[in-house]
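TL;DR need structure tokens for one chain.
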Amino acid sequence: MRRTVFNEDHEAFRDTIRAFIEAEVVPVYDEWFAAGQAPRDFYYKLGELGIFGINVPEEFGGAGLDTHKFEAVLYEETARAGVQFGGSGVHVLLALPYIKMLASDEQKRRYLPKFVTGEEMWALAMTEPGTGSDVAGMKTTAKLSEDGTHYVLNGAKTFITGGVHADRVIVCARTSAPSAEDRRFGISLFAVDTKSEGYSIGRKLDKLGLRTSDTAELAFVDVKVPVEDLLGEEGKGFSYLGHNLASERWGIAFGAYAQAKAAIRFAQQYVQERTVFGKPVAHFQNTKFELAACQAEVDAAEAVADRALEALDAGELTPAEAASAKLFCTEVAHRVIDRCLQLHGGYGYMNEYPIARLYADNRVNRIYGGTSEIMKSIIAKSMGL
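>> reply
TL;DR here they are.
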């Protein structure tokens, strides 16, 4: 069936991104992989390309659009090439919605022009050691100073993607203790300057996959955060976090679908070139049946991902629908990528082959943004169970 989610503008963007990846990323990607991160100056190139400003209002240097479809194209093209754009996805998919939703006009004038150019890269610091999906259990605190000019931030965060290169981090912290009636009460959000005294980056975490994406532990010891960098209202942070979870989970769902689609492409190429028992691997019925089954699953995941994208752009994607899309697409990707790796035989286990890296990169999709088990809980609750 014909796909209708993208128009000519999106396809022109696709051509630009594909050419950029071939020229600027593929030749050096092995170096990034070995280093465990993309170089900082790469983000300036993304800024020059206009990727960071698509959904930023024109008055702050952006294109002024309100759509996730260009992000969707980006997911498909990076997966197709077997590459990642470092931690830049967090910058756009996670951080930008909070700035647009919560920042005052004065804050937007300070933050957004540098956001668009890549001069200031952003990350989101929510997860803490020992809390995981239980955001309400966070221990990081931000206490208002006696003179009311700044907050004093103390605590630690972990699994912060983009945390090594970030210039500003949206930090979730407790400005007051939880109430007896509501554990979620008292959380606030701050746009913290990473050059602040007392702010430190701990380990750059050694991950199974997503090797070119810098993920770090962060620590805050009496970090002074000006009151001008409080995002939104004090104490309402948890509701803000919930507001943007749908778009985050759509992003994970769409990215997973794109990885599964890319896995079939890699496997098709391999089985047509690889010969065993005097015949191409593609000649055997098992190969045909396995790839056909994978293609059927990816067709279904594409339909789910596209439907969620249209709903997101229309402002109608519900938390349960986002959870359903994430659960379905990530589980499909898990099955498809595993079967495509199997068709590579021993070579599928070698990191020089994109399917091996894809296998490792994909695994986290069923964990971050809320585990598959959390997604099932959300869906079940929406069913009245």
